[in-house]
Amino acid sequence: MPPHAPAITSLHNPHVKRLVRLRARRDRDREGVILVEGARELARAAAAGLELHTLYHCPALYSPEAREVAPTLPGPRLELSREAFEKVSGRENPDGLLAVAPRPARPLPVPGPNTLLLALHSLEKPGNLGAILRTADAAGVGGVLVLGGTDLYSPGVIRASQGSVFTVPVTALDDAAAQDYLDGHAFTRVTCTPDAAQDYWDAPLTGRVALVLGAEHAGLPAPWRTAGLPVRIPMHGEADSLNVATAAALVLYEALRQRRPPSSR
Q: Which residues on adjacent β-strands are paired with residue 230?
């Protein structure tokens, strides 16, 4: 479509109807695509080399960041009216940028002798997974394994991660493949579970280590709980669990603390 084409205004336009359908995981999975919304998220996706099939934009809704980012984004683009964009957006206050892109195919990381991984099992809430990915990005982990059928590229995860889902080496896979990978590369699995006897700060977290966390309600499945080194985060109040994103940050940064060179301790 040429650059001067008029904006799409009809809520019954095929593009609008497709974008609404793609909010559902089954439709995204069927087409092998993801939705990426927001200037920051799109900038990080593009910087990571993600191809954008089509960029949908609405200049009337641009935030200052969107106005700066929009000209830098690659690929074909279509303009939507304010009403049409608000129809397809998954946000209360959209910034006027939304793209359809192919679902990334991320290979498992090739580990070094001191690679630190996170393995996350059946996290139900996109906000928790997104927050953990931001922490993983900040900490420079070697990779994140997402297990249990979690929708890694849901719009909620992409938004909560602020695009870190595209900057961290992250792979979704099933339990058997994850166990084969970790065992095949001689990772020590450190499993976070409240009934462990050892506090996490007393456990050795150096070398080739995978920190394994599960959902707050269900915890880790038995095959994961019984393998590796179980650790706990001490709880002294009435609460019986921590938010999983908080737990991941605590254990991850303890691992980084233990990995500091002697000169910086």
A: 191
In which region does residue 28 sit, left (phi positive, over 0), alpha (psi from -120 to 50) or beta (all else)? alpha
Residue 206 token pair: 């150096």
Q: How many helices (H) and strands (E) does the chain have?
A: 10, 10
**Whether the predicted model's global pTM rises above the 0.90 cut:** yes
CB neighbours of residue 15 within 10 Å: 16
Range in 40-44, 82-86, 157-161, 190-194 the model is least confident about:
190-194
- pLDDT tens-place string over residues 240-260: 678 999 999 999 999 999 999
Collect all residues with Cβ–Cβ distance below 8 Å to 3 and sequence separation of at least 6.
none
Euclidean distance between CA atoms 175 and 190, whole angstroms? 16
d(CA 53, CA 101): 5
Count of domains in the chain? 2
My answer on whether 126 and 161 are in the same domain is yes
- Only one residue has tokens 């690679």, namely 115
Q: What is the Cα gyration radius of the chain?
A: 21
CA neighbor of 188 nearest in space, from 119, 257, 261, 135: 119
Of all helices (H) and strands (E), which one includes residue 257?
Answer: helix 244-258
Give the Cα separation of 212 and 230 in Å (integer). 9
Q: Are 130 and 156 in contact (CB under 8 A)?
A: yes
Same domain, 128 and 189: yes
Where does a domain end: 56, 78, 102? 102
Residues 40 and 139 in one domain: no
